[in-house]
Design a protein that fits this description.
The protein has 105 residues and is of the alpha/beta class. It has 2 helices and 5 strands, in the order E-E-H-E-H-E-E. The longest helix is centred in the middle third of the chain and has 14 residues. The N and C termini lie far apart (27 Å). The relative contact order is 0.18. The model has no long low-confidence stretch (mean pLDDT 94).
């Protein structure tokens, strides 16, 4: 189980001790991206990651939520004063042919 970061537990927490890379991952449904709870989660994650030697935040969302997720991540990143912490939004569409795309910030 991932550790609590701030007052929130991320869906994924990984640390590579050899390279000092810390990654926090969060998955959201379309209806759960742009709300106070998610913003507070992301803000606490960015606040933690900004003090790590190397860090990234990853957010997995449905295809149509990619723009909203990017906006919310960028806002939480700025509010946390963590502009040096990159984030990735991974969007997916599941159907007869599944599609996945990643945006890096």
């Amino acid at each position: 189980m991932p550790p609590i970061v701030g007052s929130n537990r991320p869906d994924v927490f990984a640390r590579d001790l050899g390279s000092s890379l810390s990654i926090i991952g969060e998955a959201k449904t379309s209806d759960d991206i742009d709300n106070k709870h998610t913003f507070e989660q992301l803000e606490s994650f960015f606040d933690y990651l900004r003090f790590q030697p190397r860090a990234e935040l990853w957010m997995g969302v449905p295809w149509l939520g990619a723009g909203t997720a990017t906006r919310v991540c960028r806002h939480a990143q700025k509010k946390s004063n963590a502009l040096h912490v990159p984030f990735r939004v991974v969007a997916f569409m599941i159907g007869n042919t599944s599609i996945r795309r990643t945006w890096f910030e």
